[in-house]
Amino acid sequence: MTTALMPLDPSVSPQHANRILPIRANLLPQDISAGRRARRTRAAVIVAVVLVVAMLGAWYWHATVQKRDAEADFASVTEQVSQVQKGQRAYSDLTTTKNTNIKMTGQLGKLMAEDVPWQAVLDLVRTTGATYEVTVTELTGQLARDNTGSTTGDVIGTINISGKAPDKKAVAKYVLALVALKSKGFTDPFVSNVSGVDTEGVTFNLSVSLTKVAMCGTYTTKCS
Protein backbone atom coordinates (compact mmCIF):
# COMPACT_ATOMS: atom_id res chain seq x y z
CA MET A 1 0.00 0.00 0.00
CA THR A 2 1.28 3.37 -0.91
CA THR A 3 0.42 6.65 0.78
CA ALA A 4 0.50 9.94 -0.96
CA LEU A 5 2.19 12.58 1.08
CA MET A 6 1.37 16.22 0.77
CA PRO A 7 4.31 18.28 -0.01
CA LEU A 8 5.47 20.28 2.94
CA ASP A 9 5.94 23.96 2.79
CA PRO A 10 8.99 24.58 4.86
CA SER A 11 7.70 28.09 5.75
CA VAL A 12 4.48 26.78 7.49
CA SER A 13 4.70 25.03 10.85
CA PRO A 14 2.25 22.24 11.91
CA GLN A 15 0.66 24.60 14.50
CA HIS A 16 -0.11 27.16 11.79
CA ALA A 17 -1.42 24.49 9.49
CA ASN A 18 -3.98 23.27 12.06
CA ARG A 19 -5.01 26.75 13.40
CA ILE A 20 -8.71 27.77 13.17
CA LEU A 21 -9.05 31.23 11.79
CA PRO A 22 -11.10 33.70 14.02
CA ILE A 23 -13.57 34.63 11.37
CA ARG A 24 -17.30 35.14 12.20
CA ALA A 25 -20.05 35.90 9.79
CA ASN A 26 -23.78 36.48 10.42
CA LEU A 27 -25.44 34.64 7.62
CA LEU A 28 -28.99 34.90 9.01
CA PRO A 29 -31.42 37.02 7.05
CA GLN A 30 -32.06 40.55 8.34
CA ASP A 31 -35.72 39.92 9.18
CA ILE A 32 -34.87 36.89 11.38
CA SER A 33 -32.25 38.89 13.35
CA ALA A 34 -34.67 41.80 13.78
CA GLY A 35 -37.39 39.43 14.97
CA ARG A 36 -35.11 37.90 17.59
CA ARG A 37 -34.11 41.35 18.86
CA ALA A 38 -37.75 42.40 19.02
CA ARG A 39 -38.67 39.29 21.04
CA ARG A 40 -35.80 39.92 23.49
CA THR A 41 -36.82 43.55 23.90
CA ARG A 42 -40.47 42.61 24.37
CA ALA A 43 -39.53 40.03 27.01
CA ALA A 44 -37.40 42.60 28.89
CA VAL A 45 -40.24 45.14 28.80
CA ILE A 46 -42.73 42.55 30.06
CA VAL A 47 -40.41 41.57 32.93
CA ALA A 48 -39.91 45.25 33.87
CA VAL A 49 -43.66 45.89 33.82
CA VAL A 50 -44.29 42.81 35.96
CA LEU A 51 -41.67 43.99 38.48
CA VAL A 52 -43.16 47.50 38.61
CA VAL A 53 -46.67 46.13 39.10
CA ALA A 54 -45.40 43.79 41.82
CA MET A 55 -43.67 46.70 43.61
CA LEU A 56 -46.78 48.85 43.33
CA GLY A 57 -48.89 46.01 44.69
CA ALA A 58 -46.50 45.50 47.63
CA TRP A 59 -46.49 49.24 48.39
CA TYR A 60 -50.28 49.39 48.21
CA TRP A 61 -50.58 46.39 50.53
CA HIS A 62 -48.13 47.97 53.01
CA ALA A 63 -50.02 51.32 52.89
CA THR A 64 -53.31 49.51 53.41
CA VAL A 65 -51.96 47.67 56.45
CA GLN A 66 -50.60 50.90 57.94
CA LYS A 67 -53.87 52.70 57.29
CA ARG A 68 -55.80 49.89 58.95
CA ASP A 69 -53.48 49.96 61.98
CA ALA A 70 -53.77 53.76 62.22
CA GLU A 71 -57.55 53.57 62.07
CA ALA A 72 -57.54 50.93 64.81
CA ASP A 73 -55.28 53.11 67.01
CA PHE A 74 -57.49 56.14 66.37
CA ALA A 75 -60.60 54.19 67.30
CA SER A 76 -58.91 52.95 70.49
CA VAL A 77 -57.80 56.46 71.50
CA THR A 78 -61.24 57.85 70.71
CA GLU A 79 -62.81 55.20 72.90
CA GLN A 80 -60.41 56.01 75.73
CA VAL A 81 -61.20 59.73 75.47
CA SER A 82 -64.90 58.93 75.50
CA GLN A 83 -64.48 56.80 78.64
CA VAL A 84 -62.49 59.56 80.36
CA GLN A 85 -65.12 62.15 79.45
CA LYS A 86 -67.83 59.91 80.84
CA GLY A 87 -65.82 59.55 84.04
CA GLN A 88 -65.37 63.31 84.30
CA ARG A 89 -69.10 63.88 84.23
CA ALA A 90 -69.32 62.20 87.63
CA TYR A 91 -67.05 64.95 89.02
CA SER A 92 -68.60 67.86 87.14
CA ASP A 93 -69.79 69.53 90.35
CA LEU A 94 -66.33 69.23 91.90
CA THR A 95 -64.68 70.61 88.76
CA THR A 96 -67.11 73.53 88.66
CA THR A 97 -66.47 74.32 92.33
CA LYS A 98 -62.70 74.11 91.84
CA ASN A 99 -62.79 76.44 88.84
CA THR A 100 -65.00 78.85 90.78
CA ASN A 101 -62.54 78.85 93.68
CA ILE A 102 -59.64 79.57 91.34
CA LYS A 103 -61.56 82.46 89.79
CA MET A 104 -62.53 83.86 93.18
CA THR A 105 -58.94 83.56 94.44
CA GLY A 106 -57.74 85.59 91.47
CA GLN A 107 -60.39 88.24 92.06
CA LEU A 108 -59.59 88.43 95.78
CA GLY A 109 -55.90 88.70 94.94
CA LYS A 110 -56.60 91.77 92.81
CA LEU A 111 -59.03 93.21 95.36
CA MET A 112 -56.66 92.73 98.29
CA ALA A 113 -53.39 93.50 96.50
CA GLU A 114 -52.79 96.30 99.04
CA ASP A 115 -53.96 94.36 102.05
CA VAL A 116 -52.23 95.05 105.38
CA PRO A 117 -52.62 92.58 108.29
CA TRP A 118 -53.55 95.30 110.76
CA GLN A 119 -54.07 92.97 113.69
CA ALA A 120 -50.54 91.54 113.42
CA VAL A 121 -49.04 94.98 112.76
CA LEU A 122 -50.74 96.64 115.72
CA ASP A 123 -49.96 93.72 118.02
CA LEU A 124 -46.29 94.07 117.06
CA VAL A 125 -46.42 97.79 117.91
CA ARG A 126 -47.83 97.01 121.35
CA THR A 127 -45.54 94.10 122.24
CA THR A 128 -42.38 95.89 121.13
CA GLY A 129 -42.70 98.40 123.96
CA ALA A 130 -43.43 95.83 126.67
CA THR A 131 -39.71 95.19 127.20
CA TYR A 132 -39.23 98.83 128.22
CA GLU A 133 -42.44 99.00 130.28
CA VAL A 134 -44.05 101.13 127.58
CA THR A 135 -47.81 100.81 127.53
CA VAL A 136 -49.66 101.69 124.34
CA THR A 137 -52.98 103.33 125.13
CA GLU A 138 -54.19 104.24 121.65
CA LEU A 139 -53.36 103.15 118.09
CA THR A 140 -54.69 104.48 114.82
CA GLY A 141 -53.54 103.41 111.39
CA GLN A 142 -54.34 104.58 107.92
CA LEU A 143 -53.08 104.00 104.37
CA ALA A 144 -51.77 106.81 102.19
CA ARG A 145 -53.80 106.75 98.96
CA ASP A 146 -53.97 108.90 95.87
CA ASN A 147 -57.09 110.06 94.03
CA THR A 148 -57.58 106.60 92.51
CA GLY A 149 -57.59 104.90 95.90
CA SER A 150 -54.20 103.23 95.44
CA THR A 151 -51.12 103.62 97.58
CA THR A 152 -48.23 105.59 96.10
CA GLY A 153 -44.50 105.30 96.66
CA ASP A 154 -42.69 103.01 99.07
CA VAL A 155 -44.47 104.43 102.15
CA ILE A 156 -48.01 103.11 102.14
CA GLY A 157 -49.38 104.32 105.48
CA THR A 158 -48.87 105.69 108.96
CA ILE A 159 -49.55 104.46 112.51
CA ASN A 160 -50.15 107.00 115.26
CA ILE A 161 -49.23 105.74 118.71
CA SER A 162 -50.15 107.16 122.14
CA GLY A 163 -48.92 105.64 125.36
CA LYS A 164 -47.24 105.83 128.74
CA ALA A 165 -43.65 105.10 129.76
CA PRO A 166 -41.66 105.17 133.01
CA ASP A 167 -39.39 107.92 131.69
CA LYS A 168 -38.10 109.59 128.53
CA LYS A 169 -35.29 107.04 128.16
CA ALA A 170 -37.87 104.29 127.87
CA VAL A 171 -39.60 106.26 125.10
CA ALA A 172 -36.26 106.65 123.32
CA LYS A 173 -35.57 102.91 123.59
CA TYR A 174 -39.04 102.21 122.25
CA VAL A 175 -38.35 104.43 119.24
CA LEU A 176 -35.06 102.59 118.58
CA ALA A 177 -36.90 99.28 118.83
CA LEU A 178 -39.34 100.48 116.17
CA VAL A 179 -36.39 101.49 113.97
CA ALA A 180 -35.09 97.91 114.27
CA LEU A 181 -38.37 96.64 112.79
CA LYS A 182 -37.53 97.86 109.29
CA SER A 183 -37.66 94.30 107.96
CA LYS A 184 -41.29 94.14 109.15
CA GLY A 185 -42.25 97.28 107.24
CA PHE A 186 -41.76 99.98 109.90
CA THR A 187 -39.73 103.09 109.12
CA ASP A 188 -39.11 106.69 110.24
CA PRO A 189 -40.58 106.71 113.77
CA PHE A 190 -41.12 110.34 114.88
CA VAL A 191 -41.94 111.53 118.41
CA SER A 192 -44.35 114.45 118.27
CA ASN A 193 -44.90 114.97 122.00
CA VAL A 194 -43.61 113.80 125.40
CA SER A 195 -45.11 115.22 128.57
CA GLY A 196 -44.57 114.58 132.29
CA VAL A 197 -41.55 114.04 134.51
CA ASP A 198 -39.39 110.94 134.74
CA THR A 199 -40.13 110.40 138.41
CA GLU A 200 -43.86 110.14 137.84
CA GLY A 201 -43.92 108.65 134.35
CA VAL A 202 -44.46 110.31 131.01
CA THR A 203 -46.99 110.17 128.22
CA PHE A 204 -46.03 110.38 124.58
CA ASN A 205 -47.35 110.61 121.05
CA LEU A 206 -45.41 109.37 118.06
CA SER A 207 -45.97 108.15 114.53
CA VAL A 208 -44.27 105.48 112.45
CA SER A 209 -44.56 104.94 108.71
CA LEU A 210 -45.38 101.65 106.99
CA THR A 211 -43.64 100.49 103.81
CA LYS A 212 -44.76 98.01 101.16
CA VAL A 213 -42.96 95.28 103.08
CA ALA A 214 -45.92 95.28 105.47
CA MET A 215 -48.32 94.37 102.67
CA CYS A 216 -49.27 90.72 102.78
CA GLY A 217 -52.33 88.57 103.13
CA THR A 218 -54.01 85.27 102.44
CA TYR A 219 -54.70 86.06 98.79
CA THR A 220 -51.54 88.06 98.05
CA THR A 221 -47.96 87.78 99.32
CA LYS A 222 -47.79 85.37 102.25
CA CYS A 223 -47.09 87.06 105.57
CA SER A 224 -43.87 86.12 107.30
Question: How would you characterize the overall build of this protein?
Answer:
The chain has helices at residues 14-17, 30-89, 92-111, 118-128, 168-179, and strands spanning 135-143, 155-165, 186-197, 201-211. A hairpin with a 3-residue loop joins strand 3 and strand 4. Strands 1-2-4-3 form a 4-stranded antiparallel beta sheet, with helices on one face. The mean pLDDT is 80. It has 224 residues and is of the alpha+beta class. The chain folds into 2 domains: 29-90; 118-214, Alpha-Beta Plaits, CATH 3.30.70. The protein contains 5 helices and 4 strands, in the order H-H-H-H-E-E-H-E-E.
Provide key terms for this protein.
single chain; 224 residues; alpha+beta; Alpha-Beta Plaits; 2 domains; 4 strands; rod-shaped
Predict the CATH topology of the largest domain: Alpha-Beta Plaits
- What structural category do the secondary elements indicate? alpha+beta
Amount of beta strand: 15-25%
Classify the helix fraction into a percent range: 40-55%
Q: What's the average pLDDT?
A: 80
First and last CA, distance: 144 Å
Q: Identify the CATH class of the largest domain.
A: Alpha Beta
Element-level helix/strand string: HHHHEEHEE
The number of distinct structural domains comes to 2
Q: From the coordinates shown, what is the CATH architecture of the largest domain?
A: 2-Layer Sandwich
Determine Rg (CA atoms, Å). 55 Å
The helix count comes to: 5
Reported for the largest beta sheet, the result is: 4 strands, antiparallel
Shape: rod-shaped
Task: Give a count of the beta strands, DSSP E runs of length 2 or more.
Answer: 4
Cross-sheet strand order for the largest sheet: 1-2-4-3
| Uncertain residue ranges | none
